[in-house]
Amino acid sequence: MLAFVLTLVLLLLVVIVLAYAERKVAAFMQDRLGPTEAGPYGSLQPALDVLKLLQKEDIVPAAADKALFKLAPILIFAAVFAGFAVIPFTPATVPAGIGIGVFYLLAIISLDVIGLLMAGWGSNNKYAMLGAMRSVAQIVSYEIPAGLAILSVVMICQSLDFQEISYQQGALMNQFPGMEYDMNWLFGIRELGINTTTIGGITTWNIFRAPILLVAFVIYFIASLAESNRAPFDIPEAESELVAGFHVEYSGFRFAVLFLAEYSMMVLVSLVAVVLFLGSWNTPLPNIGPVSLAYWTSGTVGEVSGILWGAFWLISKTFVLLFVQLQLRWTYPRLRVDQLMHLCWKVLTPVALGVVLIAGIWRLLMI
Amino acid sequence: MENKTIKHTSGFWYVVKSLMSGLRLTWQHFWRATNRRTPEYVSDENYFKQADGLVTLKYPYEALPVPDNGRYRLHNEIDDCIVCDLCAKICPVNCITIESVKATEEIGVTSDGTKKRLYAPVFDIDMAKCCYCGLCTTVCPTDCLTMTPVYDFAEVDIKNMIYHFTDLTPEQAEEKKQLLAKQQEEMAAAKAAALAARKQQG
After folding, report:
1. GO molecular function, one example (chain A) (predicted)?
2. pLDDT tens per residue across span A9-64
């Protein structure tokens, strides 16, 4: 229960910062000022937006399927929020440390699609219906390259536990029960004979531990943009053609929940990318001889220092990825439906299959 | 004739390069977001030299300067007004309403030395009707009617768009009218007396 409340509070904070950052980053990239009136530099704007939404009338269209229409936002948010349960926030903190976390995450996020379809179809609105169809087609398609990219990480790490994957990517690896004698090699190639177990830092992140995962990371990142309906894959809510996509009929609190779910999805996919590819809560600074930067910036596992350092690194890396998501949104134009499907099925999926194969071979080099 | 496919520049590295150049562009704009354009009029030599930086003007707090010969809200300096009614006569949209009352004696002089002989119990300009042609300021003999640089004066109630420039209260205006009527009565009486005296003589 405590984990639930803490995760929810943390998520709300991150989403509020993100909603503010979205407006400011967009404004700066377009040579505008963004919000300036509410609070210092407009920083209270997202909070006031939420307050405004809560005061609005909750409109349910007369011809809508009322039960599904009302249930959909809750289901969408619940599906995304449930994904946060398995994310390790620090070396010692994970809301639900289950051994098949990766599998659970992929499964629970797929539930999101049902909610989108319920919202779009239940609204009894052509735009909403089209938006939901596009959204579902897109998410279902892009789960395949994303899943394959994640699979290659699982093959390299030989684990479905996010916390175990996290420990493998840093100097604290041998402190995880069951991995006391495991070793990391530079680029994961044992033959090179350079032991990076105690060096840690960026050299043991998955994208360096097995450089093929850099390709997997790019594939996963592109697919995750599509899964969270972000530009340039935002055809489900293409403002210029579909008004707002599946949530066109929603207002007030229900809209706020959908909005929250959308931003939570962004945060979740970025967190997963960080945990799987970018060293999770591990520090990027390696130990260099007597200058043990990695140990200094990691704290002690289980103590306050470890929790603070872990959370700091995880959240900083996540915000870097979120910034890239925002920048992509204001840089690239929206893809057409056929281009979207072309990219998924003819480019990302074959490349991801190749990456899975190479990851399997790479794993053989690592032992 | 052999059909040739049109060769586009394409390929993996070309795509990567163009994606990167897009990102570089937005990043440069983001990076330069600390500069802001300075609010200057187009005649300023710096105006065209500010290629980057944020362009937003926080309007109520900052505003572009207006040109010196710009035509905006009218203002009448009633102390300098001789109530000649020229402005009301030239106005193409009849937005100026003037009522005048002759003074019983000289009221004073304007700042350019013209003698004032008329009171203006009503001197109203309806800015909602005004077409900002500036003719009234051209004909004004004492230059008391001028265009100010104020352009943001929208009102919720359109009645507030009528500007009253008179310096007399209604009571004072009534008093001046009575003074004038009394003087004219006296003058008429004096005239009648003089006429009667001439008749008696003749």
Report:
1. NADH dehydrogenase activity
2. 888 888 889 999 999 999 999 888 888 888 888 888 888 988 888 898 888 888 88
Tokens representing A90 are 């620090």
Question: Among partner residues B19, B55, B58, which is closest to A31 by beta-carbon distance?
Answer: B55
Q: 3-class DSSP state for residue B176?
A: helix
Under DSSP, the state recorded for A43 is: T
Whether residue B58 and residue A331 make contact (CB cut-off 8 A), yes or no, is no
Residue B129 phi/psi, 5° resolution?
-90, -25
Mean predicted lDDT score pLDDT of chain B: 86
Nearest-CB residue to A25 (from B30, B53, B55): B30
Residue with the two structure tokens 């109203």: B124
- What pairs with residue B146 in β-bridges? B75
User: Are the beta carbons of A31 and B54 separated by less than 8 Å?
Assistant: yes
End-to-end CA distance of chain B: 126
In tens, the pLDDT along A156-202 reads: 888 888 888 888 888 777 777 777 777 777 777 777 777 777 787 78
Chain B CA closest to residue A323: B27
Q: Which amino acid makes up residue A115?
A: G
What residues of A are in contact with residue B22 (Cβ under 8 Å)? Answer: 331-332
Q: What is the Cα Rg of chain B in Å?
A: 33
Contact between A30 and B53 using a beta-carbon 8 Å cutoff: no
Which chain A residues touch B33 with a CB distance below 8 Å? 28, 31
DSSP state of A83: H
Contact state of B26 with A33 under an 8 Å Cβ cutoff: no
CB B72 within 8 A of CB B132: yes
The whole-angstrom separation of Cα B183 and Cα B188 is: 8
DSSP state letter for B66: P
Residue A331 has its nearest CB partner, among B26, B52, B58, at B26
B144 in Cβ contact with B80 (< 8 Å): yes
The ipTM is: 0.77
Residues of B whose CB is below 8 A from A31 = 29, 33, 52-56
Question: What are the φ and ψ backbone dihedral angles of A95, each rounded to 5 degrees?
Answer: -55, -45
Q: What is the pLDDT of residues A53-109, one digit of tens each?
A: 889 888 888 888 888 888 999 999 999 998 888 888 888 777 777 888 899 998 998
- pLDDT given at position B7: 64
Q: How many beta-carbon contacts under 8 Å exist across A and B?
A: 38
CB proximity under 8 Å: A 290-349 to B: 327-328, 330-332
Q: Which residue has the tokens 């007396």?
A: B193
Q: How far is CA A338 from CA A66, A134, A235, in A?
A: 33, 11, 11
Q: What is the torsional sign of CA A230, A234, A238, A243?
A: negative
Q: DSSP class of residue A94?
A: -
For residue B146, give the DSSP letter. E
